[in-house]
Amino acid sequence: MKTTKILNVDILSLTQQELLERLDKGVLVTPNVDHLVKLQKDKEFYEVYQQAQWVVCDSKILYLLSKLLKRSLPEAIPGSSFFTFYYMYHKDDPNCRIFLLGAKEGVAQKAMERINEKVGREIVVGAHSPSFGFEKNEEECYKLVEIVNRSGANVLLVGVGAPKQEKWIVKYRDQMPNVDIFMALGATIDFEAKTLKRAPIFLQKIGLEWLYRCLKEPKRLFKRYFIDDMQFFYYFAQQLLGIYKNPFQER
């Protein structure tokens, strides 16, 4: 498949419909501006990205900026929206069995109930909200793996924030042999449970969903969006000028 390189990430150049039709195995990650900034400094996160089979553009901003490159992306595929389309696409497929891992206590369970009611069958076969800092507790991680394996799920959505969710998937995926698809999808579980409201459609379309989320959670997101993520535009300008260098590539 063709890709579009933005900084040190090769993003698949495909539409949402193509992704729905082709996604059958592998790890799905959804880069946005925040990910790309982290991928300049976090070598482990970068190496996780190199192991992902499906790297799709989550961000309207990245999609618009890609038009300045030789090969632009066909569209943005926000992970939260994609997941809804994914389970509706597979609503009559008995071989699609999803597990939700993430969000605060009780939220994943609520999301499971809402999705199953919407679909009309138990497409989500299990849900669990891990404890805060679970990724540092190996015993809890092994218990989570066991819970997923016992559920019979073959699709695992992990929504605990980046880069934690991506690192956890790559570290433990081999211990879940019956899971074909791993999705790292941030706040998706919260959106499905309706505990977190998405931006109005018109803001999503013009690339301002991030601003809406920041206004909703300013204490948590202001620094990320208005300080940390501003570095992306410096790196991207370097790419346009042909002087950007991947910090993790051997020279």
Ordered list of secondary-structure elements with their pairings:
Layout: E1 3-6, E2 9-12, H1 16-22, E3 26-29, H2 33-38, H3 43-51, E4 54-55, H4 60-66, H5 79-89, E5 98-102, H6 107-119, E6 124-128, H7 138-151, E7 155-159, H8 164-172, E8 181-184, H9 188-193, H10 201-205, H11 209-216, H12 218-228, H13 231-241
Parallel strand pairs: 3-4, 3-8, 5-6, 5-7, 7-8
Antiparallel strand pairs: 1-2
Question: TL;DR?
Answer:
With 251 residues, this protein is an alpha/beta fold.
Alpha-beta content class:
alpha/beta
Percent range for β-strand residues: 5-15%
- Quick check: average pLDDT? 94
Helical proportion, percent range: 40-55%
The global form is globular
The parts where pLDDT drops under 50 for at least 5 residues are none
Description:
- The chain is built from 13 helices and eight strands.
- The chain is globular and about 50 Å long.
- The longest helix is centred in the middle third of the chain and has 14 residues, at 138-151.
- It has helices spanning 16-22, 33-38, 43-51, 60-66, 79-89, 107-119, 138-151, 164-172, 188-193, 201-205, 209-216, 218-228, 231-241; strands at 3-6, 9-12, 26-29, 54-55, 98-102, 124-128, 155-159, 181-184.
- The strands form two sheets. The protein has a six-stranded parallel sheet, sandwiched between helices.
- With 251 residues, the chain is an alpha/beta fold.
- Helices cover 47% and strands 13% of the residues.
- Helix 8 links the parallel strand 7 and strand 8 (181-184).
